[in-house]
Amino acid sequence: MENLAVAVETYSRGGAVLMPLLLLCALLLAVTGLGNLFGRRPLLPRWSFWLLLATAGLMLLGFLGMIWFHWQIAQHAVLELPEQLAAMLNQQLAAMNRGAAYGIPLYDPQSPPRYLIPPWIEYQRYYFWFFCFALMAVLAHRRLENHRFRGSLYLLLAAQLVVLYFLADPFREPLPRFFAEITPWFTAPSAWEQLGMFMRLYPRLEFYYTASYMWFHPPLLFISYACITIFFAVSLLMLIRRELEVEKVGYDYAKFGYFLLTLGMLLGYPWALKAWGPNWWWDPKVSSSIMLWAIFSTYLHTRLYANKKGMWYFSAALGLLCFVAMIFTFVASYIFPGEHSLM
Amino acid sequence: MEDKSSSSYDYKLILATTVVLGGISVICVAAMFYFKAAAVHEMAATAQMAYLNTMNGIVAPFIIALILLLGICVPKRLLPERWLNRFTIVLLAVALVTFLALGGHPALLLILFASLALQLVVLGMALAGSASLNFESKNYWVRLGSSLVHLGLILFVLDLYFHRYHTLHLVLFWITTGAVVLGMLFCFYAEQVAGLIRRWWPARA
User: Fold this and answer.
1) Does A336 contact B at CB distance below 8 Å?
2) Fewest 10 Å CB contacts: which of A343, B56, B160, B181?
3) Tens digit of pLDDT for each residue in A126-178?
4) Which residue, B59, B84, B89, is CA-closest to B157?
5) Interface check A294 vs B, CB under 8 A
6) A338 CA to chain B: closest CA distance, Å?
């Protein structure tokens, strides 16, 4: 536990330096964003690009820090039990596995289960999502020389960084739910008590924290959210002006986002069967994800006829609706009960 | 004239698809609020099952409409508009008779299997590069991709019927996933795929 405490301390200290720097970047991005979005001419184009690049670079540093932190967790957060208890434990696990569609691996004293967790849980999911957006904003910036489009990217990134700083700082109190779950393990007075806890912690470790799907399902969705944010900016501009090259960039990001969203949702299906069984249909989060997918599909269908009278604005409105649906889907975990609930 | 008319037909189909997808979205949102208000997660298992069945019943007409649209979308690749209308009427009539004689599930399965069979024909023709398919795009990879995505959607709905047969359900699911993912890649990135094929397999290109 001491090693973990040191890792938490180091990680938080790093974050305490990084986050104010990111907030400063957000303020500067907001100023240049407003200037570019509403100005007739580009405002400080070269300087703005370097600012965007510096922000993405700082976010990369923070992400590398998260990877380091998770590596420390994997090294030190281990569910290790005395060998004499292993046989008894495995009897219980074997009994649990009997008749279950998906069994849980037996305990191996030579290689006890450890928490190798991907860096997109709890508040880190926001960080990962916004970091992906920052990288995409750099790419989109280089691709299209349109100061209004660029301005909207700066503004959106600034807004995300402000949310990160004030509402979802992943460094201030690292992984509170995770540590609330595992701290009793390390403070348990005896191995017998740990044995009782093991039966609670181990299934969650297997089916959630270290599940192989955890490495694919959430990141695919977060990257697709970043794409949706880009084409939200495009949809806004489409309502104001008819610029085909801006729409083309937005469509490319929409296609990529739709591909990742569909793949991510599909990969969540076998995971849900494994972790929850077959009766999770109509779970609120699943319903909202299907809603998002349906709206996104509608956008891609209508976009084929964007040149028809009225369809340009209709598909732009659907782009905006898609963004609203994405935000709704994301916050659904905090508002609605169910299997995905974080209430 | 024929082009304009078929384009208008496609446009109407897309508008109809938009309406159906919009309906599904509204039902999903309503289900979320009902789930919270009625605290479905705290109900007994039997009550939860009853809720699932009720919701399935509410969304079923929209899924049927979506399948019917797919049932029209798929043969439109094969048939000219006049024949397409006749085919649609015959398909609906046979489905209606099956519904009245045997019930909703066999009627749906009939439409699904009819669509599946036709889609496999379309896929085979797209794979062979047939020029007689009616696609908006002339690009080989877009045609192949679109055929695969539609095949994936039909298989996905069909797969839901087999959710009680664990192994079959998962095998079908992974086939569905493969078809949809490949289809989207071919549709969205046709030029890049063609470029890759030219680079790695010049004889085939």
Assistant:
1) yes
2) A343
3) 999 999 999 999 999 999 999 999 999 999 999 999 999 999 999 999 999 99
4) B59
5) yes
6) 6
Residue found under tokens 């996933």: B177
CB B21 within 8 A of CB A297: yes
Query: ipTM surpassing 0.90, yes or no?
Result: no
| DSSP code string of A291-323 | HHHHHHHHHHHHHTTTTSTTHHHHHHHHHHHHH
Show me where the domains of chain A are located. Answer: 212-343
**Strand partners for A114:** A78
Is residue A179 helix, strand or coil?
A: helix
In chain B, whose CA is at the least distance from the CA of A280?
B52
Q: What is the pTM of this model?
A: 0.89
Contact between chains at B180 and A337 (C-beta distance less than 8 A): no
Under 8 Å between Cβ of B154 and B146: no
The tally of CA atoms less than 13 A away on the side-chain side of residue B93 is 6
User: What does the pLDDT profile of chain A (343 residues) look like in tens digits?
Assistant: 788 999 999 999 999 999 999 999 999 999 999 999 999 899 998 999 999 999 999 999 999 999 999 999 999 999 988 888 888 888 888 888 887 777 888 988 889 999 999 999 999 999 999 999 999 999 999 999 999 999 999 999 999 999 999 999 999 999 999 999 999 998 888 888 888 899 889 989 998 999 999 999 999 999 999 999 999 999 999 988 888 899 999 999 999 999 999 999 999 988 888 888 776 678 899 899 999 999 999 898 888 888 777 888 988 999 999 999 999 998 998 899 887 777 6
Contact of A3 with A39, CB cutoff 8 Å: no
Contact A144, A137 (CB under 8 A): no
- Nearest CA-CA partner of A175 in A51, A3, A11, A343: A11
Q: How many pairs of residues across A and B have Cβ atoms under 8 Å apart?
A: 95
Residue spans per domain, chain B:
1-72, 74-205
Q: How many residues does chain A have?
A: 343
- According to DSSP, the residues that pair with A78 across neighbouring strands are A114
**Closest residue, chain A, to B49 (C-alpha):** A279
**Minimal C-alpha gap between A283 and chain B (Å):** 7
Backbone angles phi, psi at A216, to 5 degrees: -120, -50
pLDDT tens sequence across A51-75: 999 999 999 999 999 999 999 999 9
Return the structure tokens found at A78.
Answer: 């281990």
d(C-alpha A323, C-alpha B67), whole Å: 27
Helix (H, G, I), strand (E, B) or coil at A114: strand
Asked if B48 lies within 8 A of A305 by C-beta distance, the reply is: no
Cβ proximity of B84 and B72 under 8 Å = yes
